C-alpha cells in the first residue's frame, strides 16, 4: 500500500512512519517542520520506500495514495497557542485538503483527533458518545474547536461523498521523540529532572491525565485504520486507563531516578482540564486493543531517550 502520513516528521508521525515501513508499506511523510524535525526521520531518508515532502497542509496538494493518516497539527499548548489562527487553519483547511484528495484518489483517510474534543469533561471517564464541554472562545479553543470541525468535515465527507473515514481520539501520549521544548508535562519533567532543575508543577498538581506509551498508541491507530467492521467511521478513543495526578508523575520519576525531586509551583493555565480518562470499551471490542506498556516502563524508556538527546547537546 502507498501511505501518506501528514505530520510525518513529528513525534507520533515519525513512529507511525517506522511502523508502516516495518509492515511493508511505501510511505510519504508530509510536514512543514513547524514542530517536527528532520532528525525524527533522518534514519529513513535513504530508504527507497520512504519519501519526505516539505509542504504546508493549509495549501492543497495531490498525491496518489491508498491510505492517508492526517496528523499534521501542533499538539502542545505552547505551540498551538503560538499562532492560534494558523492552528485553526491547519486543522480545518488541512482536513478539507486531505478529504478532497481522499475523495479524488479514493483513499481511506484517518483523522488524528484528540481527547480535547471533550474539553474540561463533566462526564468521567469519557466515552465516544459524550459531546464534551469545550469553551469555544478560550485559549485552548483554536486546538479543540479546530479538531472538532475536522471531525465534522470527516463525517460530512463520509455522508455526502462516501469517503472511507476513520477518526481516532488520541489521549495524552508520551515517549521518545517528543520535542524537548514543547512544554508537555512528561518532556518538561524528564528534562528538568535530568538537568537537576526543579519540576514545574502547575496548580496544586492534583489534576489528572492518563499517559499512553507511544508504541501502544501507534498499535491502536494502525488497528483502527485496518478495521472494516460495523461503525468503522465512528470515533474511537485510544489512550491509557492509568489515571495519575501530576504529583504522582513527579513521584514516579523520582522512583526511576532514585532520588527525591524538588518541585516549583506555577499557576494553572487557563481552561486546564481537571480530570481526563478515556473509556476504551470501543477500542477493546472492535480492535481488540489494550495498552500494554506500563507507566514506569514507558517513563524509563523516555528518560533514556532524553538522556541521549541532552548528552548530544552536552547539557548533562
Ligand atoms: P507534533 O507537534 O510532534 O507533530 C505534529 C506535526 O505536524 C509536526 O511535525 C509539525 O511540524 C506538523 N505540522 C504542523 N502544522 C503543519 C502544517 N500546517 N502543515 C504541515 N505539517 C504541519 O505532535 P504529535 O504529538 O506527534 O501529534 C500528532 C497528532 O496527534 C496531532 O494532530 C495531534 O493533535 C494529535 N494528538 C497528539 C496527542 C499527544 O499526546 N501526543 C494527543 C492527542 C492528539
Ligand atoms: N503541566 C505541569 N507542568 C508542566 C507542564 C504541564 O504541571 O511543566 C500540567 C498541565 O497544567 C496539565 C498536565 O500537566 O494539567 C498535562 O499537560 P500537557 O500539556 O502535557 O497535556 P494537556 O494539558 O494537553 O493534556
Tell me the helix content.
25-40%
β-sheet strand percentage: 15-25%
The CATH class assignment of the domain at 2-174 and 212-238 is Alpha Beta
Sequence of secondary-structure elements = EHEEEHHEHEEHEEEHEEHEHH
Spatial sequence of strands, sheet with the most strands = 3-2-1-4-5-6-11
What distance separates the N and C termini? 43 Å
Mean pLDDT, to the nearest integer, reads 97
What form results from the Cα inertia axes?
globular
Class derived from helix and strand content? alpha/beta
Name the hetero compounds present: nicotinamide-adenine-dinucleotide, uridine-5'-diphosphate
List the helices and strands and how they pair.
Blueprint: E1 2-6, H1 11-22, E2 26-31, E3 50-54, E4 67-70, H2 77-80, H3 84-105, E5 108-114, H4 141-161, E6 165-170, E7 173-174, H5 185-194, E8 199-202, E9 208-210, E10 212-213, H6 214-226, E11 235-238, E12 243-245, H7 246-257, E13 263-266, H8 281-287, H9 295-312
Uridine-5'-diphosphate (UDP) binds at residues 76-77, 172, 184-185, 188, 200-202, 207, 209, 246, 268-269, 272.
Amino acid at each position: 500500500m502507498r501511505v501518506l502520513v501528514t505530520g510525518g516528521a513529528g513525534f507520533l508521525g515519525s513512529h507511525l512512519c517506522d511502523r508502516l515501513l516495518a509492515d511493508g508499506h511505501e510511505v510519504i511523510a508530509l510536514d512543514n517542520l513547524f514542530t517536527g524535525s528532520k532528525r525524527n526521520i533522518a534514519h529513513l531518508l535513504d530508504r527507497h520506500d520512504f519519501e519526505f515532502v516539505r509542504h504546508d497542509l493549509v495549501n492543497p496538494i495531490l498525491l496518489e495514495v491508498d491510505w492517508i493518516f492526517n496528523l499534521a497539527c501542533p499538539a502542545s499548548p505552547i505551540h498551538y497557542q503560538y499562532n492560534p489562527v494558523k492552528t485553526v487553519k491547519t486543522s480545518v483547511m488541512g482536513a478539507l485538503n486531505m478529504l478532497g484528495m481522499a475523495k479524488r484518489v479514493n483513499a481511506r483517510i484517518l483523522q488524528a483527533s484528540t481527547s480535547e474534543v471533550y474539553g474540561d469533561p463533566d462526564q468521567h471517564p469519557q466515552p465516544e458518545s459524550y459531546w464534551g464541554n469545550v469553551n469555544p472562545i478560550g485559549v485552548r479553543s483554536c486546538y479543540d474547536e479546530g479538531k472538532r470541525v475536522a471531525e465534522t468535515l470527516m463525517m460530512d465527507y463520509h455522508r455526502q461523498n462516501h469517503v472511507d473515514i476513520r477518526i481516532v481520539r488520541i489521549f495524552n501520549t508520551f515517549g521518545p521523540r517528543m520535542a524537548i521544548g514543547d512544554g508537555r508535562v512528561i518532556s518538561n519533567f524528564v528534562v528538568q529532572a535530568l538537568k537537576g532543575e526543579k519540576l514545574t508543577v502547575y496548580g496544586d498538581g492534583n489534576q489528572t491525565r492518563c499517559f499512553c506509551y507511544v508504541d501502544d498508541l501507534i498499535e491502536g491507530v494502525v488497528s483502527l485504520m485496518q478495521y472494516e467492521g460495523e461503525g468503522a467511521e465512528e470515533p474511537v478513543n485510544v489512550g491509557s486507563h492509568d489515571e495519575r495526578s501530576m504529583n504522582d508523575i513527579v513521584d514516579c520519576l523520582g522512583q526511576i531516578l532514585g532520588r527525591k525531586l524538588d518541585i516549583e509551583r506555577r499557576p494553572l493555565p487557563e481552561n486546564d482540564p481537571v480530570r481526563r480518562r478515556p473509556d476504551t470499551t470501543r477500542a477493546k471490542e472492535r480492535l481488540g486493543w489494550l495498552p500494554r506498556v506500563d507507566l514506569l516502563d514507558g517513563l524509563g524508556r523516555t528518560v533514556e531517550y532524553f538522556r541521549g538527546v541532552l548528552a548530544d547537546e552536552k547539557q548533562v
